[in-house]
Amino acid sequence: MGGVVPERTAEAVTRAQAAIARHTRLVDDFPSPGIAFKDLTPVLADPEGLSAIVTALTHGCIDIDLVAGIDARGFLLGGAVARELEVGVLAVRKGGKLPPPVHAVTYSLEYGTATLEIPADGLDLTGRRILLVDDVLATGGTAVAAADLLHRTGASVVGVAVIMELVGLGGRDTIARGLGAGIPVHSVALD
């Protein structure tokens, strides 16, 4: 793994939090009435904001072999974080996006079910230490499902890193129940 310097990443967390506060677009009543959607697209479009967020997401990362970015915004972040850590990246895709054979997991959402997939051929994940990356941690169900999928292949998820955690939705607790209390969850910003 590349050189993650704690002072550098801690400083990046501060810069990233400022960029998030400055550039996040708030959209009332989306995707449904009563929801205040926080659109991080303008933050990621800002060069300084993107740079700070990518470095901030590596804060506390040690001994990572691979970064897994969760479909879809996790792809943007995962590749950049992997580059920062000097490791490879794996896209954890929504169901039906990859040719067979695939490893798949179907999990429950508050409004139905969803499926996540990764390739079953050409990729040996046995013993690999993986950092899961996504943009937002809400209820935690997608992160737990992605970790379950990776564990089934012999990999170990050793951390979860997100730009923003929606604290009131209990995602951190869901991850602790699903992956164990010892799995670090790093959120650049809390909401």
The shape is globular
> How do the strands of the widest beta sheet line up side by side?
5-6-4-3-7-8-9
Helix content: 25-40%
Terminal residue distance: 31 Å
> Total number of helical segments?
6
**Uncertain segments of ≥5 residues (pLDDT<50)?**
none
The biggest beta sheet, please? 7 strands, mixed
| Rg of Cα set | 16 Å
Subunit structure: Homodimer.
Main location: cytoplasm
Pfam families: Pribosyltran
Protein name: Adenine phosphoribosyltransferase
What does this structure look like?
Belongs to the purine/pyrimidine phosphoribosyltransferase family. The structure is a single chain. With 191 residues, the protein is of the alpha/beta class. The protein contains 6 helices and 9 strands, in the order H-E-E-H-H-E-H-E-E-E-E-H-E-H-E. The chain has helices spanning 6-23, 41-45, 47-57, 73-85, 141-152, 171-179, and strands at residues 25-28, 36-39, 66-70, 88-94, 102-109, 112-119, 129-137, 156-165, 185-190. A 7-stranded mixed sheet has the order 5-6-4-3-7-8-9, with helices on both faces. A two-stranded antiparallel sheet has the order 1-2. Helix 6 (171-179) links the parallel strand 8 (156-165) and strand 9. Helix 1 crosses helix 3 and helix 5 runs parallel beside helix 6. The mean pLDDT is 94.
